[in-house]
Specification:
By secondary structure, this protein is an alpha/beta fold. The protein has a single domain, classed as Decaprenyl diphosphate synthase-like (Undecaprenyl pyrophosphate synthetase). The chain is built from eight helices and six strands, in the order βααβααβαβααββα. Helix 5 links the parallel strand 3 and strand 4. It is globular and about 55 Å long. The two termini are 35 Å apart.
Amino acid sequence: MQGQREGYSNDLIDEHEPKDIPQHIGYIVDGNRRWAKKHGLPTYEGHLAGYNAIQDVAKATFDAGVPYMSAYIFSTENWKRSEEEVGKLMGLVLKMFTADLHIFVDNNIRVKVLGSREGVDEQILREIDHAEEVTQDNTAGTLGLCFNYGGQLEIADAVRAAATAGEDMSSITPSTLEHYLYAPDMPPVDVIVRSGGDQRISNFMLWRAAYSELVFLDNAWPDMTKEDVSSIIDTYSKRSRRFGK
């Protein structure tokens, strides 16, 4: 990495000491458009570079021993962007689940998609279902892709699903409701990482973020490397998590 980034520790890590490895790292993918502007490139090139970075970060995250990773790739608010930009983003999503699906298969990565299906093109929905099916037995790590996702909507959808399932809403508990979240087998997020310089969580994983550690990076998402992943884990291992105790 070039210099120290916000949220990182300068303390040296003894590589012989066991590290506290997070079970779930959630990445807020941010800075693609600013990266493109900085390099004098069209916006799409920033999104393409960010798309490629997801694959690299996922491999590095799972290689480090983290069993779950989530990435915020398209929010419910992102539909407000220009028709051209949204169209190209949908093209990248389709590419991920068709031409590049073999990357997840070859690397033994299980894919789960978290988000609303409402308003999503039927072809994309079919490819999502196919990708989840063909990777369901993979064991190197689970990649949760937050697509057409909003944290508040996830909770609202969970409440509706619980009511539809006949749950007694007058006595519902958090442990009951979590079974109705998107991809309920995805555990709480131990550490949320946001690239791009902003310091907010932007409606990401609101339920699973109740006790998340937060790491904010100045570098744009396309600049993320495996060294960044290692530094994030080092930083996390030095945090004291008390869960309100």
